[in-house]
Amino acid sequence: MMTVNETITLEDQIAKIAALIPQGYRLVTMTSVDCGEHFDIYYHFDRNYELHNLKLELPKGTALPSISSVCPCAFVIENEMQDLFGITISGMELDFCKHFILNEDAPEKPFCRVPGVAVSTVEVKGEQK
Amino acid sequence: MSTIVPFGPQHPVLPEPIQLRLALDDERIVSVLPVVGYVHRGLEKLAEQKDFVQDSYLVERVCGICSFMHSMSYCMGIEEMMEITVPERANYLRVVWAELHRIHSHLLALGLLADAFGFENLFMQLWRTRERIMDAMEYTTGGRVMLNACCIGGVRRDINDEQKAFVLNQLKEAEAELKRLIPVMTDDYSVKKRLVGIGILDKAAAYAAGAVGPTARGSGHAMDHRTTGYIAYKNLDFEPVVETSCDSYARTLVRCREVYQSIDLVRQALDKMPDTEIKVAYKGKPCGEVAIRCEQPRGEVLYYLKGNGTDHLDRMRVRTPTFANIPALMTMLNGSQLADVGMIVLSVDPCISCTER
Amino acid sequence: MTKATAKSPWVVHVNCNSCNGCDIEFLACLTPMYDAERFGVVHIGSPKHADIMVVTGSVNHRNARVLRNLYEQMPGPKVVVAMGICPATGGIFADCYNVLGGVDKVIPVDVYVPGCPPRPEAMLDGILEGAAILAQKQQNTPTVKPVMKLKIVKPAPAPAPAEAPAAAGATGEQAVAK
């Protein structure tokens, strides 16, 4: 089972993560989960094969500050998250403007759930040729 | 004033589509912009729509090269969530197939690298040896690429004595062939000319960029998730392969040495395999959150699974090794020559279908 | 010419949206065990040199344009072989949000080779089937006859044996004089 080592908030997010890097932690990845009213954002860090997980609850419609100033390698993960969940991530060093992995004519934020539907459906934009 | 040169998505050295927009100052690269999405399907979303048993077949299609490892990581995650104890023999069988996959993946990567620098003979020879491993996998599971051998609670097929003898024989033949081929890869003048000192990724930069697998091990990090001893690795004897010269040559050397290591691991696993069941029955539905990591041919993979007590998972997230190696690749490419781009890209063993899922 | 192309089709491999399974099996076809080269199949990097296009994987929103572009760059007559179930229907990924479906939504397909992935033997069959279609297409294509006339060049008569040492001596003297 995954243990959440720390719960962080939008205010202390950058400071908490910036404090981990000098201790020898490596950013493994970030995960976002659509929980209806909010997104759960997990930051998975690794040191000596031990996972250190940080959790952040992000209300929908709120922008998430980017951590690419402290972890430059986070930009790929953040761009992907921005595409798939439609979360606006502010202050990214390299911003693909929601078209990193999805094309302009692809469905937008496909991973977001429709409220009240267990398995969400995605509307395909544009006509299929 | 720099020139932008697009590298890909269709390029002779790339078996898969990815575009690198290279900003050049004369022949020197000043910055790189990766453009991905040519292979994005949306597999993570599809995993939520299919039930958790079907997902174990679906995740094999994350990547056709490390297919068994993906289904193994996924099954390990579900087993941890549902508290299923896998029989010992199944753990050893998983090691056998996982290591056979590592051998075939490394030979494939080395062959493609040889093809990219114009050594077609070496490419053909390495792939001929790789067919021995493919035959071993086919003889034991029935599939060459998609093994479908791993299932929740164990493995689907057993290896009998005849199959064991066949696998051991194939490994013996393959090892004898590799003893002739690998020295060409490591000592040949022209190969060294193309690889030594190309695509430098120093130790600190590798860690900061979050590099994993042979890319990190070629830069001096003894980072191998198998040392944590998941499945049966705790009972097997091996040391992570580390090289310290931090260039494309080091990453190639790591793969060359890991092929021998994997051959040894398969032998050990076949030798120590206890005689127990290969599969346990389970009840219930997965519930809870789990994050599990395994060592794939290209590095560490992370599976985050969230179950909600129904047939369908709430979320499945796959962080594949190549995805983690993109920032490292960008660091390597900065400051290198345009003619070396092909070598550098292939030295991290890119797998774009993993990257984008 | 018609005969020759069908006996040695040049193949370009396009990976659209594939999981790599079919790609590596297609590459394995070209290597010594299955050896497609015994049928004259040559794998090349550029679509401009190709007669047959082998497509693996389905089409998504981003690569549809790339695929069409590559197809248009191929000189005619051309044949498309869809390798695997994904380029035929979308396969296991047919329900994905980013998958438009089979390759035939974008370009015409001549041969379908089903399987996930197909066995290399099936792939070889598919390519050869493609080569047969290529030969047919070529026969149906009106060809412009080359303007240049070919004439049979006879081999130059061998120098008479008696003159040979003299000629050698002459060139030797010239070399010394120079």
Give the biggest sheet of chain C: 5 strands, parallel
Q: Ranges of chain A with pLDDT <50 over ≥5 residues?
A: 118-129
Q: Mind telling me the CATH class of chain C?
A: Alpha Beta
- Give the structural class of chain A: alpha/beta
Number of helices of chain C: 6
Return the CATH architecture of chain C: 3-Layer(aba) Sandwich
Count, helices of chain A? 2
Could you list some keywords that capture this structure?
heterotrimer; A: 129 residues; alpha/beta; Beta Polymerase, domain 2; 2 helices; globular; B: 357 residues; alpha+beta; Cytochrome-c3 Hydrogenase, chain B; 2 domains; 3-stranded antiparallel beta sheet; 49% helix
Layout of strands and helices, then pairs:
The complex is a heterotrimer of chains A (129), B (357) and C (178).
Chain A: E1 6-8, H1 13-20, E2 26-34, E3 38-47, E4 50-59, E5 64-65, H2 75-85, E6 89-90
Parallel strand pairs in A: 1-4, 5-6
Antiparallel strand pairs in A: 2-3, 3-4
Chain B: E1 3-7, E2 19-25, E3 28-35, H1 43-49, H2 52-58, H3 67-82, H4 88-116, H5 120-141, E4 150-151, E5 154-155, H6 161-187, H7 189-195, H8 203-208, H9 214-217, H10 248-272, E6 287-296, E7 299-308, E8 313-319, H11 321-333, H12 341-347, H13 352-356
Antiparallel strand pairs in B: 1-2, 2-3, 4-5, 6-7, 7-8
Chain C: H1 2-7, E1 10-15, H2 21-30, E2 42-44, E3 52-56, E4 59-60, H3 63-73, E5 79-83, H4 86-89, E6 99-101, E7 111-113, H5 120-140, H6 163-177
Parallel strand pairs in C: 1-2, 1-3, 3-5, 5-7
Antiparallel strand pairs in C: 4-6
Describe, in plain words, how this protein is organized in 3D.
The complex is a heterotrimer of chains A (129), B (357) and C (178). Chain A has 129 residues and is α/β, with parallel strands linked by helices. Chain A has helices at 13-20, 75-85, and strands at 6-8, 26-34, 38-47, 50-59, 64-65, 89-90. In chain A, the strands form two sheets. Chain A has a four-stranded mixed sheet with strand order 1-4-3-2. Chain B has helices at 43-49, 52-58, 67-82, 88-116, 120-141, 161-187, 189-195, 203-208, 214-217, 248-272, 321-333, 341-347, 352-356; strands at 3-7, 19-25, 28-35, 150-151, 154-155, 287-296, 299-308, 313-319. In chain C, 38% of the residues lie in helices and 15% in strands. In chain C, strands 2-1-3-5-7 form a five-stranded parallel sheet, with helices on both faces. In chain C, strands 4-6 form a two-stranded antiparallel sheet. The interface between B and C is large, with 42 and 39 residues.
